[in-house]
Each structure stands twice: as C-alpha cells, then as structure tokens.
Backbone:
C-alpha cells in the first residue's frame, strides 16, 4: 500500500459518508493481516522472536495468565508464514484501575485518567489526593493502556499514555509487558485492529458494555517479526498523515459545497422574477455538486416542493379556471344545495405576512385550510388496544412517516354513531395536531383505499376534501412546504420561549 494507491482508492469513495474514516480502518486492517508492507526473508521469524524473548524475560514474568472458558477462535484469515497468533494474556499483565467515588474528586492533586481522557485530548480531568493512591494504580509516560468498558465504537481500544504522572480510573487496564516480543506502537495497532472482535465479546446494557479480563486475555493478535513491526508502524504513520490531509481537504470541499448549495437553494426558495430562470438553470447545472449527501438531497426535495406549491415548477395555462372560482365552488359544495355561502374575502385568506415573503403565480390565491376542506374533526379519545375487539383506529405512528402505514394497528370499541362519524374515506387527509416532537406536529398523510372505513385517534385531525375540485396529493404537498411548516412551528416555538422565560 502506497500513498498513490491510497489516493486511487480514495477517489472512488471520496463522497461516501465517513470516507476518510473507512480508509483509516482499511489501512489498519491491512497492517494487522500482514498486507501493508512486504515481508523480508532476512527477518527473524516470529517463532524465534518469541523463544528469544521468553529466555530474556524474568521468571516472574512468565507466570500463566487467567484464561476464559471460551478460548478465542483463530480468525478466518491466514497470516504470513513468519507471523504467529498469540494470546494477549501471554504477553501482558492486566492491572485494573482504581474505583473512585465522586467524593474522592478534588480541584487539584494528581490527574485521574478516565476513558474520555483517552479518547479526547480536550476532555477535562478529575483530580484526587496522591496520598490516597496505591502505587499499582499510578501511570506515567509510555504506559500501555486498554479501555475495556463503555460505548462500542468510541470507548474500547489500546492507548500509549503521554501526559505525565496520573492515576488510572476503573474500566482501564494498565498493561505491563511479561515478555518483550512486541513493539508497543505496533501492539497498539494490533489490538485496535481487532476492536470488532473485542466489542463482539463485550456484554452489558444498551450503550454501555464491557469485556471481562479473561476474555481480553484470551483474545488472539498477530505477532510479526520485530523488524516488520517497525516497518508497519512507519507505514501506518505515513498513511495516517496522508489521511489527515485528505480529511482537511474534504472538510474544505464540503464547506465550499455547503455554501454553494445554500446560496443556490436560497435564490430558488425566495425567487426573484427577473433572475429566477437563470437561478434555476444554474441550480440544475450544479445539481451533481448539490446532491452528494442525504442532507443536501433533503434540502433539494424541500426546495422542489416549495416551488411546486408557489406556482414556480410548471407553466400556467391561461385557459385554467382561476383559483378564486375554484374556492367558490368548494364553498358551495360545503354549504350544501339549500344555501350558498360566499367564500370569505372572495376566497382569499388573511395571509398578508406570507405575501411579504413569497409571491404566487397569476390566478393563484392564498387561502386557509378551512376554506379548502369540506369538514374537519378530531378523532376518538377511546382507549384502543391491540387485542380489543372493535374498529381499526389509526394513530400518530400510522401517519408520522408521511404515508398511512397499516403495520401497527390498534382497535377501539366504538359505538355505531362514532364508527359512522369517524369512518375514513380514500382521499381524506389525516394531520397530526399534537406530539412531543415539533417536527411531527402538522405532518399529514393521504388516506389510501386500503384504510377506508377505519377510524382515527384524538391526536389526529381529519380533513375531508372536495375530491371533484381539489387533489389530496396537492394539499399534502402544500402542508409540507416551508410556508405552511413555518406557520405551524413559529407559534409553538414562541410558546416554548415564553414558557422558558417564566422559569
């Protein structure tokens, strides 16, 4: 593996999430499999290195380590012929840290090393009185450490301490070398190259897990010739430095892309009639650069939706009936055959605050939901259960994804009158009116034919539309547009701020 080869691979995956992180793991995986640097036939084989190291070790260092009932299985890949599989416990004496209580912490004294101090250089230290610490828990520069508890992916791993005298907290092993067959820098790579297996052997609750001392001692790691260990460390350092540069370049590129996307989409979301055509053409030409990440695609989707419900996405046909006439026909249908009610303000709602920010196409009108819907009503407050005989009742989880899902249905013992009043028709719209998440409130779904006849729960509102005069799918788009979302979220945010100010 050379820097040029690494760059070749990077070019293929540069836009993938965590591209540089994947490259780092790839380099580490090659290193511990003997695939990163070539083997030298002149190197002393690992088997001879092991024999020589044992002869040179003091007798006390060769005592047997603890073993776990389930010995570690040999990994499925083969090592170079001059490498060996060895157990961690045969090479390292594991000494756990001290169990501190919060009452032991002080403002000054000797530093207490917790897992977060290994993973983050900016993590603050706790301190304790050095007179209360036994020597076996003390560490200094060069100490080899393994964190064995915490969150998979962030906490487990091997480290070489380099920040002066300190005392170990529990959940970290100080590792004293029994025999000197490993270069510490390579050993750190070898252990961290097998973190997936360490995590697989860990147990505990969700989010916080730990690996027992016996299982860690039984873990197998690859022992190369000593000279090759040093070559591997040098090559990994070289490639990781290159990854650092790639990461910095990627960050700068993403920042530039973010600025381009924000500027392009902002011009479309607040269109200038004189420049809109040029702005839209520029955005389309820059589309590959604007849609490389899921969050950028989400922003583009929202922009397209906003343009659609403002009359900017498709050309208008002068022969189409104006929106004002459409609203009058909906009002007539809602009033019934015996009475005709004029649409309020000739079908226009009081939305002056919106007009200041967004313009509509000719013959379009701002209106209120109540002017579009034939009826609106809340659902049932009857308690529903999975096994209760009764009518299927749609709840917030059934519509929160933007479409009606029938995967998780509860049933309610509704009366005949409730069943009649709450029965859904295909084309109805169900909107969430209350929820703990701001992003969920106001979200809606169009009722499909498969849900016709079902009822709905009290935290939902049913909008029954004039299907002959308006398409439910268009109303659904409008409800998800930025203009409508702002109307829903702004008063909720204001209420939260007001409530907070009273605390």
Residues:
């Amino acid at each position: 593996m050379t820097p040029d080869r690494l760059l070749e691979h990077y070019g293929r995956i540069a836009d993938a999430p965590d591209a540089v992180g994947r490259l780092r793991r790839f380099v580490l995986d090659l290193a511990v499999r003997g695939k990163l640097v070539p083997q030298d036939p002149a190197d002393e084989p690992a088997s001879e290195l092991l024999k020589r190291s044992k002869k040179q070790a003091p007798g006390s260092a060769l005592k047997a380590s603890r073993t776990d009932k389930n010995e570690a299985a040999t990994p499925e890949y083969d090592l170079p012929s001059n490498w060996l599989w060895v157990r961690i416990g045969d090479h390292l004496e594991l000494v756990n840290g001290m169990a501190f209580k919060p009452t032991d912490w002080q403002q000054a004294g000797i530093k207490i090393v917790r897992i977060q101090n290994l993973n983050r250089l900016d993590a603050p230290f706790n301190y304790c009185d050095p007179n209360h610490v036994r020597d076996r828990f003390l560490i200094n520069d060069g100490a080899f450490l393994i964190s064995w508890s915490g969150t998979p992916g962030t906490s487990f791993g091997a480290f070489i301490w380099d920040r002066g005298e300190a005392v170990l907290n529990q959940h970290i092993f100080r590792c004293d070398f029994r025999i000197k067959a490993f270069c510490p820098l390579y050993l750190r790579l070898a252990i961290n190259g097998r973190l997936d297996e360490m995590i697989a052997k860990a147990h505990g609750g969700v989010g916080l897990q730990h690996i027992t001392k016996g299982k860690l001692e039984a873990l197998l790691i690859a022992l190369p010739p000593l000279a090759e260990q040093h070559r591997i460390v040098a090559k990994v350092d070289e490639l990781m430095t290159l990854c650092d540069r790639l990461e910095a370049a990627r960050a700068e590129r993403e920042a530039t892309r973010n600025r381009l996307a924000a500027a392009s989409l902002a011009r479309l979301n607040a269109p200038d009639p004189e420049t809109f055509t040029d702005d839209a053409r520029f955005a389309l030409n820059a589309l590959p650069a604007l849609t490389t990440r899921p969050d950028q695609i989400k922003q583009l989707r929202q922009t397209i939706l906003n343009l659609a419900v403002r009359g900017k996405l498709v050309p208008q046909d002068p022969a189409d009936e104006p929106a004002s006439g459409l609203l009058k026909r909906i009002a007539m249908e809602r009033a019934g055959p015996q009475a005709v009610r004029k649409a309020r303000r000739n079908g226009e709602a009081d939305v002056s605050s919106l007009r200041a920010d967004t313009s509509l196409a000719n013959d379009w009108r701002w209106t209120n939901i109540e002017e579009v819907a034939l009826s609106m009503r809340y659902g049932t407050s009857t308690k529903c259960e999975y096994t209760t005989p009764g009518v299927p009742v749609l709840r917030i989880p059934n519509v929160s994804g933007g479409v009606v899902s029938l995967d998780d249905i509860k049933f309610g013992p509704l009366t005949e009158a409730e069943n009649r009043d709450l029965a859904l028709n295909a084309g109805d719209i169900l909107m969430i009116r209350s929820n703990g998440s701001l992003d969920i409130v106001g979200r809606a779904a169009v009722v499909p034919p498969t849900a016709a006849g079902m009822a709905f729960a009290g935290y939902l509102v049913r909008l029954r539309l004039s299907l002959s005069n308006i398409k439910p799918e268009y109303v659904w788009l409008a409800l998800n547009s930025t203009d409508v979302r702002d109307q829903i979220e702004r008063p909720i945010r204001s209420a939260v701020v007001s409530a907070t100010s009273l605390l």
Observations:
- The CA atoms of residues 153 and 196 lie 9 Å apart.
- Residues 251-308 form one domain.
- The longest helix spans residues 226-269.
- The chain has a mean pLDDT of 81.
